Amino acid sequence: MRRAWRRCGCPKPGGRDCFTILTLLARETRHIKLGTGIVNVYSRTPAALAQHFATLDEVSGGRVVIGLGTSGPRVIEHWHGVPFQPSLTRLREYVEILRLILAGEPLIYHGRLFRLERGFRLRFTPLRRSIPIFIASLTPKSVAQTARIADGWMPVMIPLPQLGQEIAAFRQLVREAGRDPQHVVVRSPGSVTVTRDVERARQEAKATLAFYVVRMGDFYREQLRRLGYEREVQAIQEAWERGGHLAGAAAVPDALVDNLHFAGPLEACCERLAAQAEAGVDLHTVRVEGDDPREVRKAYERLRGL
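Given the sequence above, the corresponding structure tokens read:
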């Protein structure tokens, strides 16, 4: 298992700012990597993101992992007030501009969306001239682009039974792009939570899954439909329409949520991580609940040692 990293940020609107939280974590830690999860490429300019990431990398001593994604039109247009399309072009140009700025090169860039002529540079020297860029993607075109340009893939909403075939298909896309598939990290699409209160954790995961299926746009629904969960998606939508978010969450089958976001005792979580690794996951999303810091630390050490 690869070294753990702490991630913050996701496409769900209204959460806390990830850069502030990661700066606090950088101050309190020395070894773990610090990843932004999914920062959308609409609410900040490429140059602003370069400043954010270069500063955080300096503060943390070179421990940052950049996480980018497009989110979806509902969030981008109705939370940030920015037109959504063309999302793939925008994401690619952000990656290219970020790499140019972080490398210390003058910012001269001629793209479809960005035409930058003045040759500005960062007014400080970044600690690293290259910071790993992970991309969250789920549509076929966006996954193919991720295979061509990213250092890591953050797949979204892939249940465990389909995970192996999806990762194998992604690594083939990396190979077809002329890259070494083993040099592109694949993060787990769901989380594993060590807890004594499995039912509470499952209900929380169901609520989140129902929200994404019903309220966060077509991408997530289509992903599950493509993977064979048409009936489950329809049941969640119909329940939500009849009875609101509580009914929608109640309509999520246990098997579906367990295959996406597993919760259980330590040994069961170890087995789940082994299954994910067998499917091709390099980097796992893990949470340990508990009141005793010593027991929590022991659990993390057990999970890390797999």
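Confidence is low (pLDDT under 50) at residues 1-5. Try to locate this feature in the token string yourself.
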